């Protein structure tokens, strides 16, 4: 196994905090970076709250929680990444901002350090195009919440070396993830490529008046053994996120079959973005 002991996580948002928690809980030292102290604090609060829940449920001891927190160091200064052995980036989903961070990182980290991105939809090849050595760059795609969801998609960019992929794979397995290798840099990788058509078809079945949303969800839960139906899942993940991914796929693949159905467009116009906004396909009490 490569000698990875300290992992640098860029971005302390929903995913970055979960990823930092995951590595620290599995014995790695973590340096967690965000642009402002308040975002770091919010990330650390999320980590603490998540682990407090685990302690309450008896899945973690108080001692393990304290040790995990003790392994996470936070900073707003990217220069502290000169110590890290591996980088995962989980910042805002914007190409130019991700590229700027990696360009800066390349001047800070050692030459043997692998750089990876948790992007859900951007091109791995395009992010890596700003690097002098794109062979050491890969996609490392976790699912939300990163501490719970078992899958990690590892993605080749056009220039990624096999050695890089092997190291990322070993690392993901060392934090007890189930790994799949995505051999080509395509929009949606595996999971979103398969999930989005299910969302589109579920919305069309609803639009065509074939069944109620409740029955479509029920059919998926009991007929396909999915833990959530398409509408429950869209509300949970963010209706707007699915909508943006569909538009992105339509543009990238140049194929109208990915175009968001009219009902979904209207949901976005009405601010029905899912659980986070109190209403999506279903209504939720805002507490
Ligand atoms: N939310 C999900 O379900 C999910 C799942 C898998 C992958 N992703 C991907 O993970 C990434 C992060 O998503 P998220 O949901 O955690 O977003 P988020 O908005 O919760 O967090 C992003 C964080 O990045 C910080 N940030 C912005 N620019 C930065 C910079 N230059 N350096 C350091 N930090 C910076 C922001 O302050 C914020 O705290 C995105 O690429 C997204 O596509 C998200």
TrEMBL record:
<dbReference type="InterPro" id="IPR006176">
    <property type="entry name" value="3-OHacyl-CoA_DH_NAD-bd"/>
</dbReference>
<feature type="domain" description="3-hydroxyacyl-CoA dehydrogenase C-terminal">
    <location>
        <begin position="188"/>
        <end position="284"/>
    </location>
</feature>
<dbReference type="InterPro" id="IPR006108">
    <property type="entry name" value="3HC_DH_C"/>
</dbReference>
<dbReference type="GO" id="GO:0006635">
    <property type="term" value="P:fatty acid beta-oxidation"/>
</dbReference>
<feature type="binding site">
    <location>
        <position position="98"/>
    </location>
    <ligand>
        <name>NAD(+)</name>
    </ligand>
</feature>
<feature type="binding site">
    <location>
        <begin position="11"/>
        <end position="16"/>
    </location>
    <ligand>
        <name>NAD(+)</name>
    </ligand>
</feature>
<feature type="binding site">
    <location>
        <position position="120"/>
    </location>
    <ligand>
        <name>NAD(+)</name>
    </ligand>
</feature>
<dbReference type="InterPro" id="IPR036291">
    <property type="entry name" value="NAD(P)-bd_dom_sf"/>
</dbReference>
<keyword id="KW-0520">NAD</keyword>
<dbReference type="InterPro" id="IPR022694">
    <property type="entry name" value="3-OHacyl-CoA_DH"/>
</dbReference>
<comment type="similarity">
    <text>Belongs to the 3-hydroxyacyl-CoA dehydrogenase family.</text>
</comment>
<dbReference type="InterPro" id="IPR008927">
    <property type="entry name" value="6-PGluconate_DH-like_C_sf"/>
</dbReference>
<feature type="binding site">
    <location>
        <position position="93"/>
    </location>
    <ligand>
        <name>NAD(+)</name>
    </ligand>
</feature>
<dbReference type="GO" id="GO:0070403">
    <property type="term" value="F:NAD+ binding"/>
</dbReference>
<dbReference type="Pfam" id="PF00725">
    <property type="entry name" value="3HCDH"/>
</dbReference>
<comment type="pathway">
    <text>Lipid metabolism; butanoate metabolism.</text>
</comment>
<feature type="binding site">
    <location>
        <position position="144"/>
    </location>
    <ligand>
        <name>NAD(+)</name>
    </ligand>
</feature>
<keyword id="KW-0560">Oxidoreductase</keyword>
<feature type="binding site">
    <location>
        <position position="276"/>
    </location>
    <ligand>
        <name>NAD(+)</name>
    </ligand>
</feature>
<feature type="binding site">
    <location>
        <position position="34"/>
    </location>
    <ligand>
        <name>NAD(+)</name>
    </ligand>
</feature>
<dbReference type="GO" id="GO:0008691">
    <property type="term" value="F:3-hydroxybutyryl-CoA dehydrogenase activity"/>
</dbReference>
<feature type="site" description="Important for catalytic activity">
    <location>
        <position position="141"/>
    </location>
</feature>
<dbReference type="Pfam" id="PF02737">
    <property type="entry name" value="3HCDH_N"/>
</dbReference>
<dbReference type="InterPro" id="IPR013328">
    <property type="entry name" value="6PGD_dom2"/>
</dbReference>
<feature type="domain" description="3-hydroxyacyl-CoA dehydrogenase NAD binding">
    <location>
        <begin position="6"/>
        <end position="185"/>
    </location>
</feature>
<protein>
    <submittedName>
        <fullName>3-hydroxybutyryl-CoA dehydrogenase</fullName>
    </submittedName>
</protein>
């Amino acid at each position: 196994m490569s000698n990875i002991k300290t992992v640098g996580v860029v971005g302390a948002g929903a995913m970055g905090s979960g990823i930092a928690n995951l590595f620290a809980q599995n014995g790695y030292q973590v340096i967690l970076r965000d642009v402002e102290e308040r975002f770091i604090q919010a990330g650390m609060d999320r980590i603490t709250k998540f682990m407090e829940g685990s302690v309450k449920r008896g899945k973690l001891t108080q001692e393990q929680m304290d040790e995990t927190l003790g392994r996470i160091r936070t900073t707003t200064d990217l220069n502290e990444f000169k110590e890290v052995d591996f980088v995962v980036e989980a910042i805002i989903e914007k190409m130019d901002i991700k590229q700027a961070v990696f360009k800066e990182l390349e001047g800070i980290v050692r030459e043997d350090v692998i750089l990876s991105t948790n992007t859900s939809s951007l091109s791995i090849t395009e992010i890596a195009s700003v690097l002098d050595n794109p062979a050491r760059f890969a996609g490392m795609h976790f699912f939300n919440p990163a501490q719970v969801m078992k899958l990690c998609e590892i993605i080749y960019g056009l220039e990624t070396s096999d050695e890089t992929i092997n190291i990322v794979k070993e690392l993901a397995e060392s934090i007890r993830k189930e790994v799949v290798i995505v051999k080509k840099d395509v929009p949606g990788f595996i999971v979103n490529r398969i999930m989005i058509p299910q969302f589109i078809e579920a919305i069309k079945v609803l639009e065509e008046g074939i069944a109620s949303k409740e029955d479509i969800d029920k059919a998926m839960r009991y007929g396909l053994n999915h833990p959530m139906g398409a509408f429950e899942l869209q509300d949970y993940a963010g209706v707007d996120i699915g909508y943006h991914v569909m538009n992105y796929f339509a543009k990238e693949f140049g194929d109208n079959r990915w175009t968001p159905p009219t009902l979904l467009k209207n949901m976005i116009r009405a601010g029905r973005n899912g659980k986070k906004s109190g209403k999506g396909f279903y209504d939720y009490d805002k507490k």
